[in-house]
Every structure is written in C-alpha cells, then in structure tokens.
Amino acid sequence: MEPLASRIRPQTIDEVVGQEHLVGEGKPIRVAVEKKHKFSFVLWGPPGTGKTTIARIYARALDAELFELSAVSAGKEDIRKIIAANTEGKEKVLFLDEIHRFNKSQQDFLLPYVESGELTLIGATTENPSFEVIPALLSRARVFVLEPLSEEALKAIIRRTKLKVPKDAFDWLMGYANGDARKALGMMEGAQSLYEAVTVETLNKALESPHLRYDKKGEEHYDTISAFIKSMRASQPDAAIYYLARMVEAGEDPLFIARRMVIFASEDIGLAQPTALVVANAVFRACEAIGYPECAINLAHGVAYLAEAKKDRSAYNALGLAQADVRTHGNLPVPKKIRNAPTKLMKELDYHKGYKLYDDESYLPDKLKKKKYFQ
C-alpha cells in the first residue's frame, strides 16, 4: 500500500502547506509554476519540508517528463540514460535528491547538459550548497531555502489524513517531528496500522526503540552545533565534549564537525594560540582518513584542546571592520608608493616611488589613513 505521506501529497501549488516565502502569492516558485518559467534550481532545507512535492508540481506545470534520482545510488550512467530517453518532444526535468552526495566528477559530468538546456535540474539538499555543489553548477541554478514546517503547517497536514488525533497526541507529534511532515505522518501511520488508533500511548509503542531526538538535517542539528561552539568559546570542555558525543551518537558527519572546529580555531582562538589552527586541521584530515568510529577519538582530542585554549577574536574582528569599509567605499585607490611598477611608464607615474622596506607611514588608501582595524 502507498505510504500515507504519498497518498496525501499536494498535487497543485495551492495545496502546498508552509514555505509561504516561496509558494505564496507573487513568490518565486508560485510565479515560476504559473508562468511555466523554465530554469534550474536547488531546494535547500531540512527533510520533510516539501522539496519533492515542489519539484513534482513544477515539472507538472511545465508538462515535462520528470526523472527522479537519488544521488546516493545514481551515477553518470543514469544521467546518460535520461539524456538518451525519448520523451516525444517533452522537456526533461531531473530531480536529483541529495545532490550533495554527487562528487565533483559527477557534477562536472552533469554541468554541460544543464548549461545547454537539455536538462532542467532541480537539486534537493539538506547541506549548504555553497560547500557541496560545484560553483559552475551553482551559478546556473537559483537556490531556494526551505524552512522547518511550523506547528500550524504540521497540524494542517495532519488534518488532511482524516485520522482522529487527540490534542495530546498532536503535541507529541509536534515534538517528535521537529518540523518534518514525513516523520510525523510515518509515525501516525505506524500507530494506526499497529494499534488502530493514534494516541500518545500507541505513538510511544510504535516508536520501536528509545533514541535521541536528534535529526541531523533539522533544527536539532543546528541547536546542537550551536551549543557545541558556544561551549568551546566559553572554555567549557565538559559541555563541548557532551555536545560532541550527542552528534557522534546521532551519526553526524564528522567532517561537518571538524570543519566547524577549523573555523573556530581562527575565529575564536586566533593569535592567542596559533597552534589551534594546526590542531584543528589535523583533526579534519584524521576524520577524512579514518572515519567513524575511531575518528570520534580525534574529534574529542581536538575539542578538548580548543575548549582549553586561550581566546582572541582580534583578527576576526579586524576582518569584519575592514570588510565593512570595503562594502562602504568600494575599491579605493592603492597608494602609489606600494603599487607594483614593472614598466617604465608606471615608474614615470611615480608607482613604487618612495617605498621603504620598513615604513611607519600607513599603507591604507588615503581616505582610510587613520583607520585602526586590528586591536
């Protein structure tokens, strides 16, 4: 039997619940559907928030042939088959779920077909596409960010099932689902099929084994990594290692954790203990080479070191102040004395004139001569 989530899936843009910033009146995806505007895009957001639904509605609006692949199991040969497929003149839309799982080579292979318009690509990802999708492909696709579904949106979706759900069971589902409609519907379906009723008692029974309420692609993911970073920043190794343990036990990507540690080493520790960046990079490389379960030891080693290290944000703060001036003033002229002078003409224009190896005069552009970024 078709899963409950599939049976009640919206078929038109008007039936979509939530994501008003994308599908509301005058918003980009609704406009694209209504005007049958053909373009590639990436849907970035937590699971169970409508990525597949939006892709199918969009393809239907274009009267296109929709091909659905999961990047976990698909490869170049699957793309070749789609390109070769006879769609009798219909546009080809490829919905590539978990696009971040396609490696650089696979994404490079996909690129010319998207560029030429042979394929309209809809990528779906739970990871930041800035890090996971190659720039060339990303430049040819718009990115739309989906949010976890609100409590009201989840309630509206649950009502569509026509199942009787008491208020306390509603509340239980809200906490369990964490903004993920598919998760809520799957649990409801399990309780209904096993016990013929959706109550707090049957929901708990349907939950086969106790587990941490940690969705590594949803809100809990962001709350936990935030607590992890703030604990290291406050020099609290016990708290930092606790939040690390939660992420490790939930199967969080070790490279995601290690990447945040590398950023933290420069952002929060910086000049107070420059070796922190060396340690954080070593942890990242160890996680790349070893993987779970052993790399959890490397992570713990690095976390303890970073949490205990002295903190200094002066370099990070200086960069922020300088960037603000760049955005305000644009590319101000570089002082002539520190410009390169490889040609006779440049020398005649006083480029490099008066330059000293050691100089007390500010090298900042004239407009910013008295600025102090680094404290």
List keywords for this structure.
5 strands, single chain, five-stranded parallel beta sheet, alpha/beta, 52% helix, Rossmann fold, Helicase, Ruva Protein, domain 3, 375 residues, Zinc Finger, Delta Prime, domain 3, 19 helices
Cα shape:
globular
Q: What strand order characterises the main sheet?
A: 2-3-4-1-5
Structural class from helices and strands? alpha/beta
CATH topology of the largest domain: Rossmann fold
Unreliable stretches: 209-213
Topology, number of strands: 5
- Give average pLDDT, whole number: 90
Element string (H = helix, E = strand): HHHEHEHEHEHHEHHHHHHHHHHH
Rg of Cα set: 26 Å
Summarize the structure.
By secondary structure, the chain is α/β, with parallel strands linked by helices. The protein has 19 helices and five strands. 30% of the residues are buried.
Outline the fold blueprint.
Layout: H1 4-7, H2 20-23, H3 28-35, E1 41-44, H4 51-61, E2 65-70, H5 76-84, E3 92-97, H6 104-116, E4 120-125, H7 129-132, H8 135-138, E5 142-145, H9 151-160, H10 167-177, H11 181-195, H12 200-206, H13 219-233, H14 237-249, H15 254-269, H16 275-290, H17 295-308, H18 314-329, H19 344-348
Parallel strand pairs: 1-4, 1-5, 2-3, 3-4
Helix pairs in contact: 3-4, 10-11, 11-12, 13-14, 14-17, 15-16, 15-17, 16-17
Structure description:
- With 375 residues, the protein is an alpha/beta fold.
- The protein has 4 domains: 19-145, 3-Layer(aba) Sandwich (Rossmann fold); 151-206, Orthogonal Bundle (Helicase, Ruva Protein, domain 3), CATH 1.10.8; 219-308, Up-down Bundle (Zinc Finger, Delta Prime, domain 3); 325-368, no CATH class.
- The protein contains 19 helices and 5 strands.
- The protein has helices spanning 4-7, 20-23, 28-35, 51-61, 76-84, 104-116, 129-132, 135-138, 151-160, 167-177, 181-195, 200-206, 219-233, 237-249, 254-269, 275-290, 295-308, 314-329, 344-348, and strands spanning 41-44, 65-70, 92-97, 120-125, 142-145.
- A 5-stranded parallel beta sheet has the order 2-3-4-1-5, sandwiched between helices.
- Helix 5 (76-84) links the parallel strand 2 (65-70) and strand 3.
- Helix 13 packs antiparallel against helix 14, helix 14 (237-249) packs antiparallel against helix 17 (295-308) and helix 16 (275-290) packs antiparallel against helix 17 (295-308).
- The protein starts with a helix and ends in a 27-residue tail after the last helix.
